[in-house]
Design goal:
With 241 residues, the protein is of the alpha+beta class. It folds into two domains: 64 residues, Winged helix-like DNA-binding domain superfamily/Winged helix DNA-binding domain (Arc Repressor Mutant, subunit A, Orthogonal Bundle), CATH 1.10.10.10; 151 residues, Chorismate lyase-like (Chorismate lyase). Helices cover 24% and strands 33% of the residues. The strands form three sheets. The chain has a six-stranded antiparallel β-sheet with strand order 4-5-6-9-8-7. The chain has a two-stranded antiparallel ribbon with strand order 1-2. Strand 1 and strand 2 form a beta hairpin. The longest helix has 14 residues. The two termini are 39 Å apart. 18% of the residues are buried.
């Protein structure tokens, strides 16, 4: 592909998409160093500044990473969740092969720590492993009142919980969440099936319907080297600060 400098599409954007396509077609594979700024500048007949802008965008998008003194390398693809979506929706949207393992599903009395927000005597505790290309990227624990679920079993829980609840007439309008980094220990190493250190993020959220009903409480642990959570913070006027 040649760069069309007469096109209304900015030159840096054309170059960025050309590099993205080369990575998608495995011209440069994960972990490989791409051509230098000088080489790309000469190859496409554009300025170093234009190359730097294109590469900078791809670094911000998580497709590339710069290593000082070494070059620019292709990153391992990450699952990136920008809006309030289920894991299944995010994976499908990005074209990833995904699966779910249900490792715990039981009915239990509502724990004391939830008694002030869940006004039901019994809840389901659901613990699921979420996999991308057979790699565990999240451990998801959900607590939901049994009254909200109708019929539910492990096979149904291998799909999208959002879609399952939607079939019962529930729609989540917002999620009140807290995010924190946590240290991996032997328990999480066992769950994620790893031996070494990996970075983890913990997301705790209360998921609420349009009529202000708390539908379920969720605590999810993500591998932050595999999964990115983007948060948009809005003012009351709807502007991002």
């Amino acid at each position: 592909m040649s760069i069309d400098k007469s096109s209304p599409i900015p030159v840096y954007y054309q170059l960025k998409e050309e590099i993205r396509e080369k990575i998608s077609n495995s011209f440069w594979k994960v972990g490989e160093c791409i051509n230098s700024e000088r080489e790309l500048s000469e190859e496409y007949g554009v300025s170093r500044m234009t190359v730097r802008q294109a590469l900078g965008d791809l670094v911000q998008e998580g497709l590339l990473v710069r290593e000082k003194g070494k070059g620019t390398f292709v990153c391992e693809p990450k699952v990136k969740q920008r809006d309030m979506m289920s894991f299944s929706e995010v994976a499908n949207k990005l074209g990833f092969k995904h699966s779910t393992e249900v490792i715990e599903f039981k009915k239990m009395k509502t724990p004391i720590e939830f008694s002030d927000i869940i006004m039901f005597e019994e809840i389901y505790k659901i613990v699921r492993l979420r996999l991308i290309d057979e790699v565990i990227v999240a451990v998801e624990t959900v607590y939901i009142p049994t009254d909200y679920c109708g019929f539910i079993n492990e096979d149904l829980l291998k799909g999208s919980l959002y879609q399952l609840l939607a079939s019962y007439g529930y729609e989540i309008e917002r999620s009140e969440s807290e995010i924190q980094a946590i240290l991996i220990d032997d328990y999480y190493k066992k769950l994620f099936r790893v031996d070494g250190q990996i970075p983890l993020l913990k997301l705790s959220s209360n998921n609420i319907t349009k009529d202000n009903k708390l539908l379920f409480v969720e605590e999810s642990i993500y591998r932050s080297d595999k999964y990115t959570l983007e948060v948009n913070i809005l003012t009351r006027e709807g502007k991002i600060r």
